[in-house]
Amino acid sequence: MILGWLTLLIVLIATPVAAKEWSEADFEKRDLRPYSFQPPQDGIPERRTSTVIGELQTWNSERGDTFLDIGRHFDLGLNSMEAANPGVDGWIPHTAKEPLTIPTFWILPCCEYEGLVVNLPEMRLYWYPPKVADAAPTVLTFPVGLGRQEWRTPQGDFRVIEKARNPRWVIPESIREERMRESGSSEKFIEGGSPDNPLGEFRLRLSMPSYAIHGTNIPWGVGMSVSHGCVRMYPEDIRELFPLVPKNAAGAFVYETIKFGEKSGRIFVEVHPDLYGLQPGRWRRATKILRERGIEEKIDAAKLLVALEEQRGYPIDISRSASPRQSLPSATPASSEDR
Q1: 20 to 30 Å CA-CA from 319: which of 1, 141, 250, 289?
Q2: What Cα–Cα distance (Å) separates residue 111 from each residue in 62, 64, 125?
Q3: Which range marks the domain in which residue 196 is found?
Q4: pLDDT of residue 168
């Protein structure tokens, strides 16, 4: 009998475990989650200010998972998954010794809380719907892909000047020349609806000439700086955002490598890599922001220094007073039911 069980155990160990496979159907539907917040303003007690939204989660990875799939499942870009899980191989995260950190936790960019706001270093878009009387303001947030170093997405204000479904891509001459050099492609345009059209199914054309917020035919570029300057979104995200944003909606591309926020009277910091090398000197910049906002005396400098060094990409409590260690929700095991 014992020999029989040993034989069965050896067979089970030797049999390869089938890797989980993700498909586009796993990402097609996602419930929009508007987050309530309370910006600082006159007449509102400081303790009620709340510019930190969401929460950290954890995930037990299985064979077949990658940062690309897990990130998209939680509406995160590759950059967020890598920053929150240093030292973990994003192609085989199931080999990690601990559950993965899922950073669905953010500080709102300062300090305009209306319209479209894209924080470039964070590679994330925030949409503030029009305010409703007597209701708390809300925000929706989505990951994006941005322009690579030689085609940087610019900073500045803009307006949405056109909305289009299945837009035709008229290829700019500079990009056409690049395509000819790299692949021999000589097309001057690609029709809307084509699987080769990098604009995807929806486009919000901006008042900044040649720039747009649009879908993509390569979803894995979200959370990367790989475009020619435009803002790319997951197909399922632009599908949700498109009907919400009216023509002439205002927006801005901002550049905040360091964000400070408040929640329940506590101070948080969120730090991101300097994507385009525009804000060197993290400590100097952080202390300058703290002084300008009058909260320098409320923070623990040692905690801030660690957060600036680690650049985890999600809010870290740096309040001077003691607080319980931040707890995470129970780990959510990867399974087909959770997709």
Answers
A1: 141
A2: 40, 41, 14
A3: 146-254
A4: 84
CA distance 38 to 133: 14
Give me 201's structure tokens: 């199914």
Question: Which of the listed residues 254, 270, 301 is the one where a domain comes to its end?
Answer: 254
- Catalytically annotated residues: 214, 230
pLDDT of 178 reads 65
Q: Are 160 and 202 in contact (CB under 8 A)?
A: no
Asked if 153 and 231 sit in the same domain, the reply is yes
CA 155 distance to own-chain centroid: 18
The whole-number pLDDT of residue 40 equals 83
**Residue 250 and residue 150 in one domain:** yes
Mean pLDDT by 10 residues, the chain (339 residues): 41 49 83 90 67 97 96 97 98 96 98 95 98 90 95 96 90 65 66 82 96 94 91 97 97 98 95 96 96 94 97 97 47 41
d(CA 241, CA 254): 19
Supply the DSSP symbol for 242.
T
Q: Fill in the amino acid letter for 281.
A: G
Cα–Cα distance for residue pair 134/278, rounded to 1 Å: 40
In this structure, what DSSP letter does residue 245 have? S
Q: Which amino acid is at 210?
A: S
Q: What is the count of structural domains for the chain?
A: 2
Parallel, antiparallel, or unpaired: how do β-strands 250-254 and 115-119 relate?
parallel
Q: Assess contact for 57 and 74: CB atoms under 8 A.
A: yes
